[in-house]
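G., the chain you wanted modeled:
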Amino acid sequence: MSRPGIAIMATLAHNAELRVGEIARLTRLESPLVSRELNRLVDEGYAVRRADPADGRVAWVSLSENGLDAYQAYRRATDDIIAETFGAWHSDELHHLAGLLERVLADFARPPSAGP
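Predicted structure as tokens:
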């Protein structure tokens, strides 16, 4: 499963049914990438797309039962890996790591400097 696919599945798992544009906004992924990934997820049976009855140009997307099962299995496996990796760490070490990761995220989110 691709990283964008996982991000889309996570977004749908937490929001039930969304429009494609909302998925792009919530995942911070480009709309063409979201559309390609959604096509793949629908083709593989992980997601369901339906037309809005009030506006046929609008598509609503949700996870299928298989998609929700696959996402939950992914989350359990990820949680197990995290628990195993950090199981021996003390809480103060985890808090320090969390602070450093927040700093990394903030630095990546900052616009690049103009340079010389």
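The longest strand covers residues 55-63.

Shout if anything looks off.
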